[in-house]
Specification:
It contains eleven helices and 27 strands. By secondary structure, the protein is an alpha/beta fold. 42% of the residues are buried.
Length: 373
Amino acid sequence: MKKICVIGAGFAGLAAAKKFSGSGNEIFLFDKKSSSDFLPMLPDVIGRGIDPKLLTANISELSRKLKCHFINAEVNSVDIPARRIEAGGRHFDYDYLLICAGSESAYYGRQDLMAASRKLDSAADADVIRKALDEKRFANYVVCGGGYTGIEVATNLRRLLDLRKEKGDVTIVERAPSILGPLPAWMKEYAAKNLRDMRIEVATETFIDAVDGESLKLSSGKVLENSLFIWTAGVKTPSFVDLLSVEKSPQGRLKVDEFLRLFENVFVAGDCACFSAGGLCLRMGIQFSISQGSLAAANILRAICGRRLRAWKPYDPGYVIPMANNISCGNVMGVNMRGVAPTFLHYFMCLYRTAGFRNRAAIAMKLLKGGRP
């Protein structure tokens, strides 16, 4: 029997725990949260009134079913030579380690922005934003970051305001010259037009220069008073990953080989892993996280048995940029898609991936009724 530690109970970590279940080894699953949250639908808590509790799964219950030990504590450090983890003031030794710690909001040294903004890293964060919207009306709703999540959040804010017949300006602030980073030009143009149609302002080549309470000063000199400020401007790996003296990408992701190994007995899966694709890290994605978690766990079991490891071969079914007026865009199975069809596919896959039949049924009923908050 080997002692295997899995850090992170997200998509990759749970996929790994399922693979380890029944293997006869002692499995420890670490996470600082008590629930595993379904991140793709967090913006829908804002604009469609999805109960955030429906997007969570209790890790303790999952661990009992998967026959692993759940350690509800934040991992502070990993000593790879000593094969030891420090979490919650306790030390845990391991024979094999699988890092599936995901990612968290990155503020790039701007502590003022971290203190003034609301993030969207968990169902609890989404609940905080929704309660703020229920308790107070703002003149401005500012989303910093023009990537997937920023666009989804901004369109859900506009949807909510329109349904409530409330006034308010929604603005996306993006430091880069355009939204949606490296995505194709047609997709950027399509999303930009839809944002204009939804009366959402996009301020590119702009950043938040200063914060004074609920007042935001942009680098352009414009001041947005009475603002709800939501941060979606990038992610980073957890702090314990930053402390590891190993090769990383500029984003802090751990560079792995074709078997998802960092060292002989240390594997990495999910958002923390930098798997090289054309010289760059493969983009973060749910399908990648699940398949990496499963294969990394299988490779650990194969290593224990002295069997040959299997290389991970990424399969990319595509992606969708969901926008809350149901006019979405994306590329699915190599086909460019626009309008209602990609929206339908997005929610179909969300329901498929959501944990628990009751949660899926409740979300489906909410969506079928129009997703009114």
